[in-house]
Fold:
Amino acid sequence: MEICREGETLQISDLDPFLAELLRQIPVSTNPEGKPEAEARLFTQPSTKKEICAEWISYVEPELRRLFRSATETVAADLAQLNGNEKSLRNRTLRIPFEHADAWLNTLNQARLVIAAKNKFTDEELSDHDRSPIGSRRDLSLFQINFYGFLQEFILREILSG
Structure:
């Protein structure tokens, strides 16, 4: 896999089917699916005071949900480029318009938070970047979090250098 910026586009090329599938999983991975711990990670309460939390839920959370949904829809639309024949993915390039960078950062962050909460990863596990190989679904989820973090790092680097 190669990742670079070409003008006003971020490009991920030379994709193998495994990484392409992880990319395609980004929108689905943002869904907390009724898991309270995942919901709590996405919508952290601002205070221990009930009145403040009630106002937050009424006035802030609906807009956060709308923003999250909009960002995820943007990413899903960009990822439509990867639909099709798996055997041709090595020759495909995912082109992400630079103007979608914020949506990608938002959606990747949502996915990482939800995956971490669903798997109840500890801070120690999340900090262990040398862990391998992938021997279980849990290991795959940790790899997914780290891969999405790598993508966030690249996007941020390009934003800051732009």
In short: Residues 50-79 form the longest helix (30 residues). Helices lie at 17-24, 26-29, 36-42, 50-79, 101-119, 123-127, 137-161. The chain is about 60% helix and 10% strand. The beta strands are 2-6, 9-13, 93-97.
